[in-house]
Automatic annotation (TrEMBL):
The keyword Membrane does not apply. It comes from the Eukaryota. PANTHER family: DIMETHYLANILINE MONOOXYGENASE. Gene3D superfamilies: FAD/NAD(P)-binding domain. InterPro entries: FAD/NAD-bd_sf, Flavin_mOase, Flavin_mOase-like, FMO-like. GO terms for molecular function: flavin adenine dinucleotide binding; N,N-dimethylaniline monooxygenase activity; NADP binding. Keywords: FAD, Flavoprotein, NADP, Oxidoreductase. This is FAD/NAD(P)-binding domain-containing protein. It comes from Piloderma croceum (strain F 1598). The keyword RNA-binding does not apply. Belongs to the FMO family.
């Protein structure tokens, strides 16, 4: 039997042909945001839009929902000690704050609980079919709908698709000579399988300069005699049992590892690869998205491409500009990286609703111009290096993410702008995290946040500003943070 969300008896539709079905693939942070904005629409309230989200796992939360690393690849890469690298007032959905007294940089379990609470608070759970995998999605031009095949054996037809399956599942392995031999010999593995520090050997190499690479390198120092942390562009430096190195250029027999500065490390027992993840959409057939790097442009390609690093070309980073199916019938949410994710997802969702409601609102000609303009800017910056362009395509630096959000707000007619304090605190996220960790070490962190938020979000802004003041006080010689 097809799964259909409950519709209140008051939502009566005179003509069944007016009803539009929306399929959301995934019930992580992006899928939940999509459902939230759907249920807020007049169309949903009137019963002319019906939505269902298909989630392969037994709970909502996506990457934040814990799971042992038993599958290949693991269901989630979340390791035991993971905390957010953004203060939660900046990270949270604008429509739903974290609870009062939440640690400023909460652990992953707190974020998972927050997402479950978000789904319950906005009554999204009835719209979610758990333990159901979308196996294949095809566009049927004869009927102008999407055909979706499910793991339950059902095949459903939808007018619109929202792709919200995330991009932290399929491990990315760097192309380094000798690495495959180390993996086969079980001397190297991706950090997707890492959960906690344990005995990998006396000398452990960690590759990757992102948050997980930094965390894992620090944790491994507690169990390994020597930890070597390799970061592209890094400068060689020895700090006790911790060695900083640049990019690895080769793995050799005899436990040798070569680096780009000409140095060699000997007797390396194990390597942990915190080298990121590939974008993967196994449920989209090859006539929907083609694997590989897109051809150079202009002109824009007539097909949609997945390079593993980026999806191209997408209008507003969401809508596929190609000729195989209507760009306004499918949207990719949550592809951007190095951003404050949850509030951006809700904003993207509102823009998606605008396009679903009025396909003509998507000016494909202007969007093509915008894509080519961005492409030319990146091509000039990276000297026509296709790989670098691809890696940077979904990355917005500095204030770019907030400009993008405001553009989406304007497009969706939300009469909203990103507030200044959010921009300010995002820019100070590293300083805030360092100061917060000091409070955790001194045992003062809980006192700082106790009761904060009961009077509204402004209390969190005040706390973050006071925490930043402690940094200046320490620089002036006062080492003790003040409440």
């Amino acid at each position: 039997m097809d799964f259909l969300p409950n519709i209140s008896s008051g939502n009566k539709v005179s003509d069944q042909s007016d009803i539009k079905q929306i399929c959301v693939i995934g019930a992580g942070a992006a899928g939940l945001a999509a459902l939230k904005v759907i249920v807020d629409t007049p169309q949903y309230q009137a019963g002319t839009w019906i939505a269902v989200a298909f989630e392969a796992r037994s709970n909502v939360g996506g990457v934040w929902s814990p799971a042992p690393p038993t599958e290949d690849p693991p269901l989630t890469p979340i390791y035991d000690s993971l905390t957010t690298n953004l203060p939660h007032p900046v990270m949270a959905y604008t429509s739903f704050s974290f609870p009062p007294s939440t640690p400023l940089f909460p652990p992953a379990s707190t974020v998972q609980t927050y997402l479950e609470s978000y789904a319950a608070h906005f009554d999204l759970t009835p719209l979610i079919q758990l333990r159901t995998t979308v196996q294949r999605t095809q566009w049927e031009p004869a009927i102008g709908k999407w055909k979706v095949q499910l793991s339950s054996g059902d095949t459903r037809q939808f007018d619109f698709i929202i792709v919200a399956n995330g991009h932290y599942r399929v491990p990315r392995y760097p192309s380094i000579p000798g690495l495959s031999e180390w993996i086969t010999a079980r001397k190297a593995s991706h950090s997707a399988w890492y959960r906690r520090p344990h005995n990998f050997g006396e000398v452990v190499l960690v590759i990757g300069g992102g948050p997980s690479g930094q965390d894992i390198a620090a944790e491994m120092r507690t169990v390994a005699r020597t930890v070597i942390h390799s970061v592209t562009g890094g400068v060689s430096e020895n700090l006790g049992n911790f060695k900083k190195r640049g990019r690895v250029i080769a793995f050799k027999e005899g436990e040798q590892v070569l680096f780009d500065d000409g140095t060699t490390e000997f007797e390396v027992d194990y390597c942990l690869l915190a080298t990121g993840y590939e974008m993967s959409f196994p449920f989209l057939s090859s006539d929907i998205i083609q694997s590989g790097f897109p051809p150079s442009c202009p002109p824009l390609p007539r097909r949609l491409y997945n390079s593993g690093y980026h999806i191209f070309p997408l209008a507003k980073q969401m809508f596929p500009l190609q000729t195989d199916y209507p760009p306004s019938s499918i949207a990719f949410m949550g592809l951007l990286v190095k951003v404050a994710p949850f509030p951006l997802l809700e904003t993207q969702g509102r823009a998606v609703m605008k396009v679903f409601e009025n396909p003509a609102s998507l000016d494909t000609t202007q969007e093509a111009v915008d894509i080519i303009t961005r492409y030319e800017e990146l091509r000039s910056k990276f000297c026509d290096d296709t790989l670098s362009i691809s890696k940077s395509w979904h990355k917005y630096k500095g204030q770019e993410q907030f400009d993008y959000r405001d553009q989406l707000h304007q497009f969706a007619d939300t009469r909203t702008v990103v507030v200044d304090w959010e921009k300010e605190m995002y820019g100070k996220k590293n300083e805030l995290r360092i100061a917060w960790r000091k409070l955790e070490k001194t045992g003062e962190a809980n006192d700082w946040v106790k009761g904060v938020g009961e009077g509204g979000p402004a209390e969190w802004v005040d706390l973050m500003r006071r925490l930043l003041e402690t940094i200046g006080e320490e620089e002036d010689g006062d080492k003790r943070p003040k409440l």
